[in-house]
Amino acid sequence: MDAPSPLDRLPPLNALRSFEAAGRLQSVRRAAAELSVTPSAVSRMLALLESSLGVALFVHEPRSIRLTPEGSRYLDAVTEHLHGLVAATDLLTCPRRNETILTVRADTLFGNWLVSRLPWFHRGQPWVALQLTTASGAGDFGRGDVDAEIRPGIGAAAGYATQPLLAEPVACVCSPGYLARHPLAVPADLRAVHEQDLLRCLDSPGTWDDWLDEAGLADVSAKNGLAYGDAALACRAAVSGQGLALLPPTLVEPELAAGRLVRPFCASAQPVGQVVEFALHYPVEREDRRALQAFRRWLDDELAPRAQAG
Asked: How far apart are CA 206 and CA 91, in angstroms?
């Protein structure tokens, strides 16, 4: 008799799909809607999975569910392997699609800049069907479900190659309306603005402190400035006239060119701020994809003049 296969211990695929959706969405009802089944069907799949594993994956409350610590760890592993199956299936069954469709996930601020430049990319590579999404947080990166990612930092994760794209100091920007209400000529004028007007990014909390220290303004605090989750939100706040933000000039170039943002201090008057780095990250096994190679060359052409200027 043949020895049992380790695969015999795997739960049914439908149960794993229900678990992944319910765990990610923290809702049986929303998981059912995504999977086009009834909530009771999802509940049965979750009960089957917990029974087969002998482990409680969720805490079931009257109107909601939440993952147990064991469920959270299992969800990470299941998600990774389900995405791997999707990628393997795509590579096997859609060779033509894989030659022309390019899926890219970008940091939101970089994505906003990219949108303003994509018409030029499409004119040069009309055969590439680029699908661009943005990340809502660091957890959206590294899932292996897209062809390439544009994210902060240049360090490569296991299985990924990187192409540095941008490294430049942040600059102080605000709306023309804000500048009209608060005349600013040199950084020392910031002593006269409200502390909450120094717009902070929660994903880079020390940026204002470093900038103020370099400007010799250690007595000015940004700790009570309005805080936003990422640079894209801080940019929108600055455009709306809420205050001043520290952002990489290249990535707010569309707003500067349109006059929605201005730089209140000339380059020689403001300190060299924290350097922001971005890179293109892509799985090593997708490196030879024609569409990805075309996108990489185009990014180099777009950003090389800025790198040389910096």
From this structure: 43
